[in-house]
Automatic annotation (TrEMBL):
<dbReference type="Pfam" id="PF00215">
    <property type="entry name" value="OMPdecase"/>
</dbReference>
<dbReference type="InterPro" id="IPR018089">
    <property type="entry name" value="OMPdecase_AS"/>
</dbReference>
<protein>
    <recommendedName>
        <fullName>Orotidine 5'-phosphate decarboxylase</fullName>
        <ecNumber>4.1.1.23</ecNumber>
    </recommendedName>
</protein>
<comment type="similarity">
    <text>Belongs to the OMP decarboxylase family. Type 2 subfamily.</text>
</comment>
<dbReference type="InterPro" id="IPR011995">
    <property type="entry name" value="OMPdecase_type-2"/>
</dbReference>
<feature type="domain" description="Orotidine 5'-phosphate decarboxylase">
    <location>
        <begin position="18"/>
        <end position="264"/>
    </location>
</feature>
<keyword id="KW-0210">Decarboxylase</keyword>
<dbReference type="GO" id="GO:0004590">
    <property type="term" value="F:orotidine-5'-phosphate decarboxylase activity"/>
</dbReference>
<dbReference type="InterPro" id="IPR001754">
    <property type="entry name" value="OMPdeCOase_dom"/>
</dbReference>
<keyword id="KW-0665">Pyrimidine biosynthesis</keyword>
<comment type="pathway">
    <text>Pyrimidine metabolism; UMP biosynthesis via de novo pathway; UMP from orotate: step 2/2.</text>
</comment>
<feature type="active site" description="Proton donor">
    <location>
        <position position="97"/>
    </location>
</feature>
<keyword id="KW-0456">Lyase</keyword>
<dbReference type="InterPro" id="IPR013785">
    <property type="entry name" value="Aldolase_TIM"/>
</dbReference>
<dbReference type="InterPro" id="IPR011060">
    <property type="entry name" value="RibuloseP-bd_barrel"/>
</dbReference>
């Protein structure tokens, strides 16, 4: 049995800092790296990222859509990427944003959280907007296998507020309900719960009460999308010690050399460490 994801993440961040390095093989990046936009180019991109990031950052976040776009050959590359990071000390958060009900959600959970699945990562992103309770199959399986979930709460896309900032009949924002549900799952867990949230680094002041969360927060939007280290204090306040700022393009644009990628990631990592002190 592996240790719970929250404990493994806390140890990784203590050793390597909070940076979450995105692995987003967008067609424009493949072209920029001089790679063909096919499964061969995808694999070269992915394995260069493994060489650059394994053992250097706490966690990486491959965006599954860019692999799935290449069909079964692309999914095979994602499987190879996940396997390559195992044992490196760098955790893998598969950005899949799955969310469904009943047996379908259970099947998604088995694919990305189940023992023996070639796609099983250390954690995945999930969408609770069919109701937080719809995530129960993934929550239960993650708990049994020592893996984690990052639940979409308050995202930075312009369409998000229509749902996420809406208020219930008793005046509670929908996003706060997601925070409270995650907090209930993490209650009493030490040093950190395994149910995290996704809150965009560019959303500004959230008015969310994060005091009971006791879990990690993934903060996309750091770097090329406009958020800097100062924004982390504005958005997350005292809770930024549990925040994983996610940076993709700001690092990946330094490819195709693995050394240049590693150096770029370490610069971001070290800058975050300085700001946190």
């Amino acid at each position: 049995m592996r240790a719970p994801f929250g404990a493994r993440l806390a140890a990784a961040v203590a050793e390597r800092g909070p940076l979450c390095a995105g692995i987003d093989p967008h067609p424009s990046l493949l072209e920029q790296w001089g790679l063909p936009c096919d499964a061969i180019g995808l694999e070269r991109f992915a394995m260069t990222c493994v060489e650059a990031f394994a053992g250097e950052v706490a966690i990486v976040k491959p965006q599954s859509a860019f692999f799935e776009a290449h069909g079964s050959a692309g999914v095979a590359v994602l499987e190879k990427l996940i396997a390559a990071f195992r044992g490196s000390g760098t955790l893998v958060l598969a950005d899949v944003k799955r969310g469904d009900i009943g047996s379908t959600m259970a099947a998604y959970a088995q694919a990305y959280l189940g023992e023996g699945s070639p796609l099983a990562a250390d954690a995945v992103t999930v969408s609770p907007y069919l109701g937080f309770g719809s995530l129960e199959p993934a929550l239960d399986l993650a708990e049994r296998t020592g893996r984690g979930l990052f639940v979409l709460a308050l995202t930075s896309n312009k369409e998000g507020p229509q749902v996420q900032r809406a208020r219930s009949a008793d005046g509670v924002p929908v996003a706060q309900t997601m925070v409270d549900e995650a907090a209930a799952r993490n209650e009493g867990t030490d040093p950190l719960g395994s149910v995290g949230l996704v809150i965009g680094a560019t959303v500004g002041r959230t008015e969310l009460d994060l005091s009971r969360l006791n879990g990690p927060i993934l903060a996309p939007g750091f770097g090329a999308q406009g958020a800097g280290a100062a924004d982390l204090a504005k958005v997350f306040g005292d809770h930024r010690r549990h925040v994983l700022p996610a940076s993709s393009r700001d690092i990946l644009r330094h490819g195709p050399g693995a050394t240049a990628l590693r150096d770029a990631a370490l610069r971001v990592r070290d800058a975050l460490a300085v700001h946190a002190r």
